[in-house]
Structures are given as C-alpha cells and as structure tokens.
Known about the structure:
There is one protein chain. This protein is mainly α. Helices cover 79% and strands 0% of the residues. It is built from eleven helices and no strands. It has helices at residues 2-26, 38-50, 53-85, 87-101, 105-116, 120-144, 148-156, 161-172, 174-196, 204-213, 217-242. The longest helix is centred in the N-terminal third of the chain and has 33 residues, at 53-85.
Amino acid sequence: MSRLRSALIGLALPISLGLAWEVAVAIGVSDGRLLPPPSRIWAELVRLSANGALAEHAGITSWRVATGFLAGALAGTVTGAITGYWRLARETLDPSLQALRSIPSIAWVPLFILWFGIFETSKVMLIAVGVFFPVYLGVSTALSAVDRKIVEVGRIHRLTPAGTILRILLPSILPAYVTALRTGLGLGWMFVVAAEFMGASAGLGYLLVDGQQLGKPTQIVAAILAFAVLGKLSDALLEAAFAPLLGWQDTQGKEV
Length: 256
C-alpha cells in the first residue's frame, strides 16, 4: 500500500504539468508546434505501438543498455575492489582513471568507431564506459573508507585477500554499492543516446535523430518519454533486486 501511495505521489507532478500544458495549448496560449501537448504525444505513442515500431526500437535500446551495464558494472566492481583494497594499486591506477573519467562521452565516439566499427560492439562499449566510472568510484571510495577493525577480523580468520574482499569488504559496502550501480545504470541510459547516434538504424536514439531530421517534434518527445519510462523501470527493478539484502537497514528514509 505504501508503494502504491508513493507511486501515486510521484506521478502527481508530471501529470499536473502535462494537464497544464494541454490546457495552455487548448486555449491558445501556445500552438504546441515545437512542444506538443500530451494528447498529440499519446497519439504518436499509439501510432508507434500499433505498427510495432515502439516495441522494436525500445527492445533494441534496452538490450544495448543491459549488455553495456553488465559489462561496465562488472569491470567497475573488479577494478574498484582492487584499488580500494590495495593502496599501491590505488596509487598506480586511480590518477589515470580519474583523468579518463573527465572525458565527455561524445569524445569516445570517433575512437570507438575506428576500433570497433559502427555496429553493436562500439555502442555497447560506449555504454559500458559510462557505467564503469561511477561503479568503480563508488566501490573504490567505499572500500577505502571501511573500518580497519573489520578487516582485522578477516585476518584473524586467515582469509585470503580475495576472501576478505568477497566475504567482508563487499558486504559492508553494499548500500554504497547499490547506489553506485543505480548511478551507473542512469548514465548507461544517457550514454546509449550518444551510442545510437553512431550510425544506428534502430533504437530510441534513432527515433530522436529521425524526428529531428524530418522536423517531427511529437516523435522526439515520444522517444524522450520512452527513455524516461524505461530508465525509471530499470532503476526500480535494480532497487527491488537488492532490497532483500538491505532489509537490515534502519534508516531515516524508512520513516512514514
């Protein structure tokens, strides 16, 4: 019941703004040409759904994000665990990784096209890069801040370095890790737009480019809304997947 209540409260703002804009266009405050009202956007979504285009493009984009997210999250977790646990690795790798983190996503596009071509590999790699850095930074920072007494417990039980990371350190940073994953997933959805600008012939990013080239703002806004809905759903699924592991937390956010 509380989840339903939270969902309804969260929908109140976008629905109110949409209704306000619908009324503004209806009474002539705007012609709705450049920013269509919700009724036109809904009609466009229905049209794209009827011919199967929306499902096809959304499915392709979701597959790219999922694949890139898994690759980037795995690489970020492993690298962050290494630099968070070993000081020498942190001093060696972290400065270079922090410098690479500052590079804009679009700057990787020409290089990835040269390396991997214009097909799926380059797109997935670009998304993986976007996911990698927040996951790496979250894991590395959280591990390096773990109380040393907890690590000493592992040493007393003669755990190997890998065992210490897997059985003590990673569970102790689980809340921070989930936050890093959610941040990485959000960036994955952002990077997929740049990825689908790389000569894509399908995907929600392709719908954006097609709408811009043909002067169809309704299609552009419909694609943006599809991105928003898919991004929110994937974030909710990720949060729900880790919720059983975080049930022990007694935090301020749980108060009614």
